Amino acid sequence: MSRHKPDPECILRVLETLRARPQEAVYVGDSEPDGMAAWAAGVPFVGVLTGVTSRARLLEHGPAAVVDRLGDLISLLDSGLIA
Predict the structure, then answer these.
(1) Is the pLDDT of residue 81 over 90?
(2) Which of 36, 58, 69, 82 has the highest Cβ tally under 10 A?
(3) Average predicted confidence (pLDDT) for the chain
(4) In what helix (H) or strand (E) does residue 34 lie, and over which residues does it extend?
(5) Residue 41 — left, alpha, or beta (φ > 0 → left; ψ -120 to 50 → alpha)?
């Protein structure tokens, strides 16, 4: 791949490879470029506070949710709140 986040190229290629629609996926990341790339690809974004980006900064990019740690993703996805 020739482009880097926040360009959505990587996400779009994965969707194409999996023959999935954006609404069938979730993009998880810990930075602002992750949120920007997910938005550009039309994929719901879940921010995770494992990096240096604050909750407030992740919330600026319209995430479906922000979780404290990766382990919280399982219960979030099981809850059905992210469709």
Answers:
(1) no
(2) 58
(3) 92
(4) helix 32-41
(5) alpha
For residues 34 and 26, the answer to whether their CB atoms sit within 8 Å is: no
| Tokens read off for 19 | 């023959």
SS3 at position 46: strand
Residue 22 has pLDDT above 70, yes or no: yes
Structure tokens at 28: 């998880």
The residue behind tokens 């992750």 is: 34
Structure tokens at 70: 């990766």
> Among the CATH numbers 3.90.550.10, 1.10.260.40, 3.40.50.1000, 3.55.10.10, which is that of 9-79?
3.40.50.1000
Q: Is residue 2 helix, strand or coil?
A: coil
Residue whose tokens read 């039309």: 42
